[in-house]
Design a protein that fits this description.
By secondary structure, this protein is an all-alpha fold. The chain is built from 4 helices and no strands. The radius of gyration is 11 Å and the shape is flat.
Amino acid sequence: KPSIYFHLGNIYYDMGDLSRAEYAYKRTIELAPEHTNAYYNLSAVYKKMDMVEESVRLSGRLIS
């Protein structure tokens, strides 16, 4: 199931529907907390939404 949400997030992101992409990536992370690509993509969504603080917080999580 996490992979379905992850792929949905990618589709929504490509369509420019950032709020749905955010939801899909967050759901992926809930189901699979080790899914680093979901964190990365959610960070990209936040960056596009000008939510820089959230983007940086997620990016830092990937580095740690």
